[in-house]
Amino acid sequence: MFDLAVFGSLFLTLFVIMDPPGVTPIFLALTSGRPAKAQRKMAFQAVCVAFGVIAVFGLLGHQILDYLHVSVPALMIAGGLLLLLIALDLLTGKTDEPKQTKDVNVALVPLGMPLLAGPGAIVSVILAVQKADSLGTQLSVWAAIVAIHLVLWVVMRYSLLIIRVIKDGGVVLVTRLAGMMLSAIAVQQIINGVTQVIQGA
Fold first, then answer.
1. Where does residue 33 fall: left (phi above 0), alpha (psi -120 to 50 degrees), or beta otherwise?
2. Contact assessment for residue 54 and residue 125, using Cβ atoms and an 8 Å cutoff
3. Around Cβ 2, how many Cβ atoms within 10 Å?
4. How far is the C-alpha of 175 from the C-alpha of 34, rounded, in Å?
5. CA-wise closest residue to 72 among 131, 118, 38
6. Structural domain tally of the chain?
7. CB neighbours of 173 closer than 8 A, spacing ≥ 6?
């Protein structure tokens, strides 16, 4: 039987971690300068990549990490460092260069992973799948995963309307703000990873 409590708990957890409203300015900053059709496609691609990564780790998470001898804190630190590099590009304006805006598919990295499908989301899903000991709770867990990705797609898909309102100057401002937010997220992720390493030691 479908467990509404399990669904609600995991959905809220993933909503806080994946942060659809917070992703919006970062998505706008990384996709600015592209045609609207390409931006819509990238919103869909980013959600598909995130869902694919989350689904794989949900099914095989512990086996993958054990096989690679990678700890969760190491995954958090690596993800944080990658996000920090992207944040520095946003802050310094390097994403405005033609090569950055047209040749690189940011829907895959950093949007799909590690921004959406980051260590926090991956670990939450691994734990939720492990705790789901019946068919009903398993269905509830996967329904929550699908639901949060639908929310992410809707938010990014319709955030493109914002670009038409704020114009080019606004996009530059949003880009710098997104860089600040992303750098804070990255540093916090690294701190969390290091803290877990110290506690484990």
1. left
2. yes
3. 11
4. 14
5. 118
6. 1
7. 166
Report the residue count for the chain: 201
Burial letters for 83-92: b for 16+ Cβ neighbours within 10 Å, e otherwise? bbebbebbbe
Give the H or E element holding residue 4.
Answer: helix 4-18
Tokens of 120: 């926090």
Q: Token match 């992703």: residue?
A: 23
For tokens 């709770």, name the residue.
137
Instruction: For residues 26 and 177, give the distance between their C-alpha atoms in angstroms, rounded to a whole number.
Output: 8
pLDDT in tens, the chain (201 residues): 889 999 999 999 999 888 888 888 889 888 888 888 999 999 999 999 999 999 999 999 889 888 999 887 888 888 888 888 878 877 887 654 433 444 568 888 888 988 899 888 998 898 899 889 899 999 999 999 999 999 999 999 988 787 777 776 777 787 788 788 888 888 988 998 899 999 987
Considering the entire predicted model, what is its pTM?
Answer: 0.76
Whole-angstrom Cα distance, residue 66 to residue 5?
A: 30
What is the extent of the structural domain holding 195?
A: 4-16+23-200
